[in-house]
Amino acid sequence: MFGIAAVLRGPMSKGFWARALFASAFLLTGGARAEPQDLPRVPSTVAPPLVPPAERTPGATALTLDDALRIFRARSFDLVIAEAAVASAEGDVLAARALPNPNVQFEYSHIFNYRADGRNLVLGTCVGCASNGILAQISDNAALENVLSGKLSLKRAVAQAALAAQKMQRRDARRLLEGQVKNAYVAQAAAAAALRYAREAQGFSAKLLELSRIRHPAVINDGQLALVVADKAQADIAVIQSEGSLEESRAVLALLLGVQRIDVIYDADVRTAYRLPPELANLDARQLVDLALAERPDLAALRLSVRRARASSALVDRQAFPDVALMMQYYDVGTAQNAVQPPTLTWGASLNLPLFYQLQGEKRRAQADIDTQSALANKAIAQVVSDVRTALAAFDVARRSVDILETTQLVAARRARDVAETQWREGSATLLDVLYAQRQLIATNQTYVAALQTYWSAIFALEQAVGIDGRTP
């Protein structure tokens, strides 16, 4: 297995990053196989970075995605809970491995109205008689029977299967939670990029307002000036809203990272692109499904639950044979033959006779558990296939959308705004033309940031669907 692909750093250029798309660094098992031509492929491309923020927030710490995942793995409260569940299952295994402790009983007794000193009129002189007695008893609590019947080994098998399933559930929890961290991280980066574009639009509106006031009232009238003032106010509101969205996204990411101090601020810095390993790029949908079926921890956990249910059913069948406890007892009240109780050593066994109930209810529940876990495992297989297909479809849409935005729409919108501004300065275009072009550019920038965020989310969804993450050590 090998992990993360080559990392490319540097500012985003419109020409180069227009080709971008798929990114993630998956761990791979095995080599590439023959691919049917009628199935969709994952293109061997590079993921574009989100636009970095225009300026660093005062007091904030720059945070890469790798840093965010490292902090999450060290601090996450949810991972601590998952670890505690594994520790509990490990305790169950230790308990299942242990033999029952032997039972020891000791009693002291005294007989009243009895003289054992030789002046007893009935017994006469009795050497070795006593009015005090002792009883000692030890039992194995069915330990030997549990070993010989195989009950102990079946209990161990049930506990070990449950532990293995719990470990897979912990791994699955990490898979899902890390997906949340990645999406929250990209959401913060997208909010920072949106704020950068909003401030850029605000700066343009401010310059436009300044020029309009110079030209008023000679060139533009009161109504046109009012339009520019309203446009500037709208740009100011957009900046305020973008700042609020950025702060909200910071709060979400901080919660996932376990931050407990309000003065700890992280700035997501998505400037890095990740090239897809050629081996994974050559996989088609069917091969990705095969990989997911082998790697998804939730499916593995359900398969282990089926094993646990079957072991539990076998244990119930074995427990229909009752536990047999072996015991040994010593009892005496005096040591003479004619004492109240001469020394007596007794061996025996005790068990509950299954005359009225033979665990029919437990057997029915055990079989129902097998049926339930098997159905859940089969359902999970269908879910894996659906997840991979859905993730591939979402990725393809996001890839093509970003491609159009990068190669055509962004360039055209900015060019239209710049030309409209130049023509307005020269008197060949109206103020409404400039405002319309500016609004189109703002809308295009917003669409572009949203498309990049959707694209990265599609990458993370495909990682989750396949069940591998090349960024995980």
UniProtKB/TrEMBL annotation:
Family according to the record: Belongs to the outer membrane factor (OMF) (TC 1.B.17) family.
SUPFAM superfamilies: Outer membrane efflux proteins (OEP)
Record's protein name: Heavy metal RND efflux outer membrane protein, CzcC family
Keywords attached to this entry: Signal
One function term, GO molecular function aspect: efflux transmembrane transporter activity
Pfam families tied to this protein: OEP
Signal sequence coordinates: 1-34
InterPro entries (alphabetical): MdtP/NodT-like (IPR010131), OMP_efflux (IPR003423)
Taxonomic source organism: Labilithrix luteola
